[in-house]
């Protein structure tokens, strides 16, 4: 789907947002959306790799890139009238990715995306979006993302028993410090199609309760994988606090596959693990 199509979906989601009544008890679209990916736009892939820090020209897709390819389908689902959460302001709270087979950059894939359910969160309601990539009839890649719609709730804690990457009090060894420019949200939005207003400008971010624009969660994941060992086949990440732009973050890793991002005062933004 072209960028203008994604823009129309965002506008549609924004127009429908005032009529949404988010709640984990509400119904949601049940049918998956499917699209073929006969070839990969190599110029766009290279632009994505540059923004995220991956080497360009590899014969295989970065572990995070199928998420970008499936994003238009996720946008169609989350902007649908039947989806109960307002699209503008949705915050990515976690992702789990599994690669089952090599992902050639030549294409020849099929993507399917569906809403896997709603769940209560102490700050509102979370939706789980599942994405599956197939090739030659078999699953080669899949992910599960959670997105939070913040709204008033009387719940004081998250009821889920299992969460990827439980918070750690002892920081991991710092490998690198990154100074993030204020335009990284716009640059990543241009290559990914995710132009959620919370990522673009301070003014639009403030409309949703953020003091400044915040970095895309998937950019922070990709940047960490590009800096570390991105050759793993499974990654679990939990986003704990927004990364404000511009800003400075410390990337930590311990060599066992665990990684994190911390900000001022050791504030934990992201916890992840690659295996």
What is the secondary structure topology, with strand pairs?
Layout: H1 3-16, E1 33-37, H2 42-52, H3 65-78, E2 91-99, E3 109-121, E4 124-135, E5 138-150, E6 174-180, H4 184-192, H5 202-206, H6 217-227, E7 234-239, E8 247-253, E9 258-262, E10 268-274
Antiparallel strand pairs: 1-3, 2-5, 2-7, 3-4, 4-5, 6-8, 7-10, 8-9, 9-10
The named CATH superfamily: Hotdog Thioesterase
Structural class: alpha+beta
Q: CATH topology, anyone?
A: Thiol Ester Dehydrase, Chain A
* Lateral arrangement of strands in the main beta sheet: 1-3-4-5-2-7-10-9-8-6
Radius of gyration: 18 Å
- Overall number of structural domains: 1
Low-confidence stretches: none
**Count of individual helical segments:** 6
Shape: globular
Q: What percentage of the residues does DSSP assign to strands (E)?
A: 25-35%
Query: Considering DSSP H and I runs of 4 or more, what fraction of the residues is helical?
Result: 10-25%
Biggest β-sheet, characterized? Answer: 10 strands, antiparallel
In the CATH scheme, the class would be Alpha Beta
CATH-scheme architecture: Roll
Order of helices and strands: HEHHEEEEEHHHEEEE
